[in-house]
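Note to self: the last two entries modelled the partners one at a time, which told us nothing about the interface. This time every component goes in together.
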Amino acid sequence: MAKVKTLADLRKMKDELRSKISLRENSDNPESMVQIKVSMATCGIASGAKEVMNHLINELDSENIPSVVTQTGCMGYCYAEPTIEVIKPGEQPLVFGDVTLKKASEIIEKYIKGGELVDGIIPDSYETIE
Amino acid sequence: MKDISMHMMDIARNSVRAGAKVVEISLNFHSIDNSMELSILDDGCGMDQETVSKVTDPFVSSRTKRKVGLGLPFLKMNAEQTGGSISIDSETGKGTLVKAGFLRGHIDCIPLGDIAGTVALLICGTPDVDFIIHITQDEKRFNLNSKEVKEELGDVGVYNPEVVNFLREMVKENMDEMNIK
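The predicted structure of the combined assembly is written out below.
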């Protein structure tokens, strides 16, 4: 059976990680990265916020977008969980509700990469005009 | 709440919101009666005795945004429906200890869920708080201290996707080793 991972393996991984990170610009400064906060209170967890958070972390990584995905408490939009707050560098924070895995990918693709607003912004009076 | 890992995340998030700097999570499995105890100890703001006695009432919450708080009531329901119980000890200014016992052989016991993924997300998604994780199965035990993880990583942020995946794998392998399902 293969050896079980320990913290020593993490140490080995570190140099590799560091070289990868230095390829991304200014990534040691959170202000210059895309910051995403996933609402993780009872309401969020029960609606699948954990899967959404995992998905965001992996998608942003595979797209090579410098980002920090963290957890936060309930934002008070329990009816629209899972909820995420996205802060692009130098921009106002935006809150998106009902973020399914599909929606999360759409937010990365259209809003984070393309700067285009997508439906699902809270307050929900925002809607795309066809 | 579909599984025990969700409860773990939920109660640990309560601790974080209570301003805890260190949150200690233990999952103790006992093969003799197929039981499991989840305990979460924090050094957050704590609660007075009156609040402790009311906290499993769904219509009590410390927050002002809404009038219900379902985290602890759900935990109580899920533990008690297996024949288990929960206990909450707290002291203002010192911290809180929440314990929940589950009898895993009971037909109404919810599954364990993704404990490894939850531990990884807690540590990496809440970089300002330290988590100490103990997973035991009878005599066997696995410990993980997020402070040590951060020390190993040095200037590399704990929120890195590779770190999340590494921690998930590490916890999962150790749990497999202990034969915890």
